[in-house]
Amino acid sequence: MLVILSNGLQNVFDMGRRVVVTGMGVISPVGNNLTDFWSSIKAGKCGIGLIERFPTDNLLVKIAGEVKGFNPGDYGIDPPTARKNDRYALFALAAANQAMSASGLNKENIAPERLGVYIGSGIGGMDTFVSETTKLVQEGPKWVSPLFIPMMISNIASGNIAIEYDARGVCLPIVTACATGTHSIGEAFRAVKHGYADAIICGGSEAAVSPLSISGFANSRALSRSEDPLKASLPFDIRRQGFVIAEGAGIVVLEEYNHAVARGAKIYAEVCGYGNTCDAYHYTAPRPDGTTAAEAMRQALEEAGYRKGEKLHINAHGTGTPLNDKSETLSIKLAVGEEEARKVAICSTKSMTGHMLGGAGGVELVAAVMALNEEIIPPTVGLMEPDPECDLDYTPNTARNFAADIALSNSLGFGGHNGCIALRKMNL
């Protein structure tokens, strides 16, 4: 169906439009660019450590996955911009700048009305929220910054990146807790596939490593209380106690296939399926039987044309919480069947990065793209004592070669939000 828009552009609403990844950018506890991130992940390097940004003497939890050595200027962000943005928004802008540079998209090869931004954050400007609240309490209302609101709100990363790249098309910041990054990319996939844009900068960002958020998560018993950073994030291990909070951003550029080919873009992978369901069960706990997360995986696999016998890789949500890992294991079995599930090459990169909340899905999608392309499954480090109820192949401790036909990236958020994206190598 061909539609002429009011601005004179042609928009093709065609379910057959193919969507590809043409750019990727990462800020993470194990590397602040794609090369460093992927090298660390393949090597099983753990980026979790004792918190360095603030004192932890009175905190129950003293470890996190902190971004290290981050300098906004290294990503073309000038000092005035850096001062006017929260840490989470700077992570998003830095990762977006990497992704756009890699994609080669610019004002000469895409119309601004056909470029969109779908970047979300589970929490938003936590540093700004805490610092300005402290000013209010200690110094009074007149000392609260006039930039408090635009620095704090969770849509501002999308807005600022749209300004940076003159992206006047679809713009939809998504907030679904730990599923934010995956849903942002999945919804961007649909928007490009259905003709609402030719390219979308998408993913998630988070910078919520702060005493306030750590206290909230710790008091709800969601965080690991291990004092050993290397034994804290233990997905699928019977010793697991909870997740390790982390920060970072993962941003990708999704582009319509013909548009990418016409300009000679490098294509990293094809996005070929997306599933989105809700547990409708509990505000933090996952549905124990795994049925709704399984349905998200089934939706993504069906749209991707998955066939029994194809080699499947899953970058699991794999948080290291007692309930999540059991229910996700059940979900995988339900999605593909018990027999096929035992052939799936699974990993949890959160064992190395910690849990970046709204940024996790974007970073893990990047890892899944790289695993597919290089035919290497990252390890789940620290997996020494497998939980008998988590009895699938989670690639313990060491990366291995595996030529997957299709890769999935799972995200399961508080509130029961389930997201799954399917990828294939580019089949020309």
Spans where pLDDT lies below 50 across 5 or more residues: 1-13
Q: Spell out the helices and strands N to C.
A: EEEHEEHHEHHHHEHEHEHEHHEHHEEEE
The order of strands across the largest sheet is 6-7-8-3-9-15-14-10-11
Individual helix count:
14
Secondary structure class reads alpha+beta
Coarse morphology: globular
Distance separating the two termini? 24 Å
The share of residues in helices is 25-40%
Q: How would you sum up this structure, described in words?
A:
With 428 residues, this protein is of the alpha+beta class. Helices cover 33% and strands 18% of the residues. The protein has 14 helices and 15 strands.
Short description:
With about 425 residues, the chain is an alpha+beta fold. It has 14 helices and 15 strands.
Keyword list:
alpha+beta; disordered N terminus; 18% strand; nine-stranded mixed β-sheet; 428 residues; 14 helices; globular
Please render the helix and strand layout as text:
Blueprint: E1 2-4, E2 10-12, E3 19-27, H1 34-43, E4 49-50, E5 63-64, H2 79-83, H3 87-103, E6 115-120, H4 126-139, H5 148-152, H6 156-165, H7 180-193, E7 199-206, H8 211-219, E8 248-256, H9 257-262, E9 269-278, H10 291-303, E10 312-315, H11 322-336, H12 338-341, E11 345-347, H13 350-353, H14 360-374, E12 376-377, E13 400-401, E14 406-413, E15 417-424
Parallel strand pairs: 6-7, 10-11, 10-14
Antiparallel strand pairs: 1-2, 3-8, 3-9, 4-5, 7-8, 9-15, 12-13, 14-15
Helix pairs in contact: 3-6, 7-14, 10-11
